[in-house]
Design brief:
The chain is of the alpha/beta class. It has one domain (3-305): 3-Layer(aba) Sandwich (Rossmann fold), CATH 3.40.50.300. The chain has helices spanning 53-60, 84-93, 101-104, 111-123, 128-141, 146-149, 159-171, 189-206, 217-223, 241-246, 251-258, 274-282; strands at residues 3-16, 23-36, 42-46, 68-73, 76-77, 94-97, 177-181, 209-214, 226-231, 234-240, 288-294, 300-305. An eight-stranded mixed sheet has the order 6-7-8-3-9-10-12-11, with helices on both faces. It starts with a strand and ends with a strand.
C-alpha cells in the first residue's frame, strides 16, 4: 500500500533561556507513524497539555518545520512545498479543524462567505451556481444545508452547528486528510457525540482519514482505529486503540486511564484514582527511557531501564 502520510523520526526543538544560558527544549521528540492511502482511518493523538500533540499537528500542516526528521505527504516532504501552487495543492489536501469554532470565524462576517471563498480558492469555482453547489455538497455531508446557514453570522448558530460548518468548510476541497485539534472540547456535552459520529461517517462514507487530537479517552476509545499516547513530547505507547485503552501497559497510559472518574463515584466525595495515580507516577522516578518495544498484540510500548 502507498503511504498517505509519513511522520519519520520527527523532533521539534525550541530555544529557551537567555542569551548566555541558551538551551533547547524538545516539544516533540523522535515521533514516527504512517497513514496508508488505501485505508482511511481515524488516527488519534492523546496527551495532556504540553505533551506536544498540537506542535506535531502544526508540523503536519506545514506551519512548523521539524528540527530533525521529515514529514511526507503522498511521498513528498511537506517542507519542500514552498511555491504558491504547490502550497495551495497541499492545503487543499490536508485541511485543519480547530478547537474553538467561535474563534475560527470573524463574528462580523457571515459564515457562508468563508465557504464561498474556500470554494473559489481551492476548487476554482467562479459562477454562483458552482460556488453554491460546492458549499451545499459539503454542508450536506455534515448534516446541514446551504439554506440553513446562508446569510447568518456565527453568533446566530449553535456551537455544534458552527463546528459542523467549520468541518464543511474543510471538506469543500475534498481532502483525503483532516487534522482535527480537540474538535469537541468547546462543544456542549450533548453535542459531542454528534461531532464524533460525523468524523466516523467521514471515514466510512467518504474515505477521509482523520487525525484526531484529544485528551478525552472516552471519545478516543469510541472512534479511533489506532492511537499514540504522548508524554512530554515522546510517544510512550501506540497501537490499535482498543488494545491500548482496554489494557494500557505504560505507566503514563495507566495514569491517564486512572484519571477518568467513574460515574459510580459521582457525589461520593471520593477521589478514587488518587492512590493509583501516585503509584504509577512513582514507577517513572529514576528510570531512563529506551526505545519503543513491539508487543505481540500489535502495540509498541516505551520501556525503561533502572
Amino acid at each position: 500500500m502507498s503511504a498517505l502520510l509519513e511522520v519519520d523520526h520527527v523532533t521539534k526543538s525550541f530555544p529557551i533561556g537567555g542569551l548566555l544560558s541558551r538551551r533547547h527544549f524538545d516539544a516533540v521528540s523522535d515521533v514516527s507513524f504512517t497513514l496508508e492511502a488505501e485505508k482511511p482511518e481515524i488516527f488519534t493523538i492523546i496527551g495532556e497539555s504540553g505533551s506536544g500533540k498540537t506542535t506535531l499537528a502544526r508540523m503536519i500542516l506545514g506551519l512548523e518545520r521539524p528540527t530533525v526528521g521529515e514529514i511526507r505527504f503522498r511521498g513528498q516532504a511537506v517542507s519542500t512545498r514552498v511555491g504558491r501552487e504547490e502550497r495551495l495543492k497541499f492545503m487543499a489536501a490536508v485541511q485543519p479543524v480547530f478547537q474553538n469554532p467561535f474563534e475560527a470565524f470573524n463574528p462580523l462576517k457571515k459564515v457562508d462567505r468563508y465557504l464561498a471563498s474556500t470554494a473559489t480558492r481551492f476548487l476554482g469555482a467562479r459562477s454562483r451556481d458552482e460556488i453554491d453547489g460546492a458549499m451545499d455538497v459539503a454542508l450536506q455531508k455534515v448534516g446541514l444545508s446551504l439554506a440553513e446557514v446562508r446569510g447568518r453570522f456565527p453568533h446566530e448558530l449553535s456551537g455544534g452547528q458552527l463546528q459542523r460548518v467549520a468541518i464543511a468548510r474543510a471538506l469543500i476541497p475534498n481532502p483525503p486528510l483532516l487534522i482535527t485539534d480537540e474538535p469537541v472540547s468547546m462543544v456542549d456535552a450533548s453535542l459531542r457525540m454528534a461531532i464524533v459520529n460525523l468524523l466516523k461517517a467521514l471515514r466510512d462514507d467518504f474515505g477521509v482519514s482523520v487525525i484526531y487530537i484529544t485528551h478525552d479517552l472516552a471519545t478516543a476509545y469510541y472512534i479511533s482505529d489506532r492511537l499514540i499516547i504522548m508524554q512530554k513530547g515522546k510517544v510512550v505507547e501506540m497501537g490499535p486503540a482498543r488494545v491500548v485503552l482496554d489494557n494500557p501497559e505504560h505507566p503514563y497510559s495507566k495514569l491517564l486511564k486512572a484519571s477518568v472518574l467513574s460515574a459510580a463515584d459521582a457525589g461520593s466525595g471520593k477521589l478514587g484514582p488518587a492512590t493509583e495515580l501516585m503509584a504509577v507516577s512513582d514507577e517513572l522516578v529514576g528510570r531512563t527511557a529506551s526505545l519503543l518495544t513491539p508487543r505481540s498484540d500489535g502495540r509498541q510500548v516505551r520501556t525503561y531501564s533502572a
